[in-house]
Design brief:
Shape: elongated
Largest sheet: 2 strands, antiparallel
Number of strands: 2
Number of helices: 5
Structural class: mainly alpha
Oligomer: single chain
Radius of gyration: 21 Å
Strand order of the largest sheet: 1-2
Helix content: 55-70%
Strand content: 5-15%
Length: 127
């Protein structure tokens, strides 16, 4: 029995040493062409979690996203202006300490211009 304990101890030591040199690899997701983030989930509804909780959207949800983007661009005259307005609403929600509303607005902003750093900064504050 002591030999089994010695073998088990040796294996545990080897595993510990290997883990030091090979840390766990976090899953990353591409949120915009060439922009990858570490995937982290939060216990919240998808529309309140950063990047919609990285859920695989159904065709219906993707179509709803396209409709939102189209309406926002029509309402504000350009994708850039729509992004600015939606992101500003996100920052105002953060200032009002309404993180649920802020997350929703930064998710919408990510639909309009996912490469914008404001989105990542907003989600960092929310998280």
């Amino acid at each position: 029995m002591s030999r089994s304990i010695a073998v088990l101890t040796a294996h545990l030591i080897v595993i510990a040493i290997l883990l030091q040199f090979h840390p766990a690899v976090a899953e990353t997701m591409e949120v915009a062409p060439g922009v990858r983030v570490t995937r982290k989930s939060f216990p919240a509804p998808a529309n309140e979690a950063p990047f919609y909780g990285f859920v695989d959207k159904s065709p219906t949800l993707r179509q709803a996203d396209e409709v939102f983007v189209s309406i926002a661009i029509d309402a504000y005259g350009s994708r850039e202006r729509a992004f600015d307005v939606v992101a500003t609403h996100g920052w105002r929600a953060i200032a009002a300490d309404d993180m649920v509303e802020a997350a929703k607005r930064f998710n919408q902003a990510s639909l309009l211009s996912p490469e914008q750093s404001q989105i990542f900064h907003g989600f960092a504050i929310i998280a």
